[in-house]
């Protein structure tokens, strides 16, 4: 029954669009030359509105396809760290966390960026990027897992998709321009690499990341400890500019940890972690 209702809804949606375009076509033909350009602009608004609606209802398969294209563009602007051991290590942590992300049905890809700046970011479709500087800055695996979980949280919350949609509305409809696939990918790259996350999205990704740590077995204190470390340091301006209010969030995260989880120690062994780093770098 639900399938029939959904099919009827999409049929009515397409019927409305085609009917509107047909009426608009008749109107354009009937209009004189002075009104032709204005009518054509309304045609563009109708078409672009349909694309925005599609963007706000993207399926997992469509998101994966857009994410793959966005990832290819991002890889033209960053340099990956070509060390299979590091890549495998990050992927193993990421895949464990992703199983508890709330969106385990999409394929997650974890990549290490050769950059000593402390930063991490994600884009739609399951793509997560961790700088080598972040791996080196963490004191233990739980802290690193906290950062990775936070970025997975952005994907689970569909934050990139929401921000691309907002950007499409602002840049597309306001300029009466169509939003084609290439434009969406360009906005996806911009969102991933240059635009800071909103405080609301950061809080949501924090909450999701903390939950993943607990459900995966890590000490949840890893995430607030890493945030507090960076908030008290001047060595991570890039991370703090794209992940605002780190100090406040560290306190907030610490208060969110249930009493039963506060004494967990999984992933806090600093000596084991440092030994791994010596093997990687």
TrEMBL record:
Residues 88-256 form the Peptidase M48 domain. Gene3D superfamilies: Metalloproteases ('zincins'), catalytic domain. It comes from Chamaesiphon minutus (strain ATCC 27169 / PCC 6605). InterPro entries: Mito/Outer_Membr_Metalloprot, Peptidase_M48. This is Peptidase family M48. Pfam families: Peptidase_M48. Belongs to the peptidase M48 family. One of its GO terms (cellular component) is membrane.
């Amino acid at each position: 029954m639900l399938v029939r209702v959904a099919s009827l809804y999409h049929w009515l949606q397409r019927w409305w669009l085609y009917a509107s375009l047909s009426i608009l076509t008749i109107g354009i033909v009937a209009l004189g030359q002075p009104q032709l350009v204005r009518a054509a602009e309304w045609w563009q608004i109708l078409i672009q509105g349909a694309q925005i609606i599609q963007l706000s209802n993207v399926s997992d398969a469509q998101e994966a396809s857009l994410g793959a294209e966005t990832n290819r563009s991002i890889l033209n602007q960053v340099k990956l760290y070509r060390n299979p051991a590091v890549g495998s290590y990050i992927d193993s942590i990421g895949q464990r966390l992703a199983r508890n992300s709330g969106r385990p049905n999409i394929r997650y890809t974890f990549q290490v960026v050769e950059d000593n700046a402390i930063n991490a970011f994600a884009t739609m479709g399951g793509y997560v990027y961790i700088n080598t500087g972040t791996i080196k800055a963490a004191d233990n695996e739980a802290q690193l897992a906290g950062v990775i979980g936070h970025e997975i949280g952005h994907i689970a919350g569909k934050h990139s998709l929401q921000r691309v949609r907002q950007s499409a509305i602002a840049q597309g409809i306001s300029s009466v321009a169509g939003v084609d696939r290439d434009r969406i990918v360009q906005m996806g790259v911009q969102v991933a690499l240059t635009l800071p996350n909103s405080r609301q999205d950061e809080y949501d990704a924090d909450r999701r990341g903390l939950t993943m740590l607990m459900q995966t077995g890590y000490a949840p204190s890893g995430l607030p400890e890493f945030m507090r470390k960076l908030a008290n340091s001047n060595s991570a301006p890039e991370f703090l500019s794209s992940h605002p209010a780190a100090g406040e969030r560290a306190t907030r995260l610490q208060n969110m940890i249930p009493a039963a989880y506060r004494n967990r120690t999984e992933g806090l062994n600093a000596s084991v972690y440092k030994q791994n780093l010596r093997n990687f770098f």
